[in-house]
Amino acid sequence: MKRELSITILLVAAISQAWGQLASSHAPTAAAPQPSTTAAPQLAGRPVARVNGAVLTDRDLVREEYTIFPYARQHNGGIPKGMEADIRAGAMKMIEFEELAYQEAKRRNLTTTPAQLQRAEAEFRKQFASPQEYQDLLNTEFKGSKAQLRAKIERSLLIEQILKLEVEDRSYVSVVQAKAFYDQNPNRFKVPESYAVQTISIMPPSTAPAEQLKQARKKAEDALRQAKLTKNYDEFGLLAEKISEDDFRVMMGDHKAVDRDKLPPQVLQAVQTMQPGEVSALVDIGNNSFTILRLNAHTPAGKRTFDEVKDSVRAYLKQQKAEELRSSLDKRLRRNAKVEEL
User: What is the tally of helices (H) and strands (E) in the chain?
Assistant: First the structure.
């Protein structure tokens, strides 16, 4: 299972997210038990793998599963059955990789400073809603021992160091590299013609009697009169929130940019004759329903410039490179390791 690589994944804040979920699992949740999920396992510290003799337990595995699938608490602490096998396999590979990375850090004699450890521990404690929740975690996971907790945090920081050296520092992408990718993949940066619109719609039930349809038409005409009086995006949007009957009313009627090919023919015909900032006449959208359009922007078909996409291209290439480096590191660490899944 692919997982976005980030140094912060293995920093204390990331690990504490899973710990915090487990620590607060006694708290009531809004979601009722779902029959389509596998119930949360009882964690007894049962060995699930050995990595060069180091034992990994079901606690380690479930923490990682909760990191991969943070919505587990909404499923009564369990994972949907259709996803369980993939998530467990991904979590197992990740905890094995983390242990291998930790062992590599120790082999290289990497260390953490007291200041780094203190900062990381402070960040970890911020993840908890109350001192009692923190203490519950300490008692459950570390038998009340702050020394054991610090050792776990130090382990996370050492893993972070290995990833920084082997992945983060080596996944830099220059502007020149990004430009080469841009030039070699022109189709990725083409943009279709689009229209950014807001709508106010009056939509009576399709089975409404004639008198109700007549009232709906009158309501649409009154809405048009009010819409024509609006002077900007916000005024039109507030009116949409107040009187519109389509689903976009909760977003100030804003549909953002919609590709030309995805617009209904009646709407496309209307917006093609409009200028940005203009409000349309009533547009009949069928089924005795009407909409009023405000055109916010028209973007002709074209190609995004390199300056427009430079940062996103570099981020994309960096992520791709980081995933390749992480996979290569994983293979290298496993090459001479003894990894047993129990």
Answer: 11, 11
Tokens representing 243 are 């009187």
pTM of structure? 0.62
Angle, in degrees to the nearest 10, between helices 131-142 and 146-163: 90
Q: Are 283 and 292 in contact (CB under 8 A)?
A: yes
Q: Structure tokens of 292?
A: 């009023």
DSSP strands (E only) in 207-288: 254-259, 283-286
For the CA atoms of 114, 116, 121, 123, the dihedral, rounded to the nearest 10 degrees, stands at 160
Structural domains of the chain in order of their starting residue, each with its CATH number = 7-174+315-341 (1.10.4030.10), 193-300 (3.10.50.40)
Measured distance CA(257)–CA(238) in Å, rounded: 19
- Asked if residue 199 lies in contact with residue 291, where contact means CB atoms within 8 angstroms, the answer is yes
Please list the pLDDT of the chain residue by residue as tens digits (342 residues): 333 333 333 333 333 333 333 333 323 333 333 334 444 455 668 999 999 999 999 888 888 888 888 776 555 556 777 788 888 899 999 999 999 999 999 999 999 999 999 999 899 888 888 989 989 888 887 888 889 999 999 999 999 999 999 999 999 999 999 999 999 999 999 999 999 999 999 999 988 898 999 999 999 999 999 999 999 999 999 999 999 999 999 999 999 999 999 999 999 999 999 999 999 999 999 989 999 999 999 999 999 999 999 999 999 999 999 999 999 999 999 999 999 998
Q: How far apart are CA 217 and CA 219, in angstroms?
A: 5
Measured distance CA(268)–CA(82) in Å, rounded: 42
Tokens of 333: 């660490």
Nearest-angstrom CA–CA distance, 249 and 251 = 5
Q: Cα–Cα distance between 340 and 55 in angstroms, integer?
A: 10
What pairs with residue 195 in β-bridges?
258, 298
Alpha-carbon span 311 to 305, nearest angstrom = 12
Gap between the terminal Cα atoms of the chain: 20
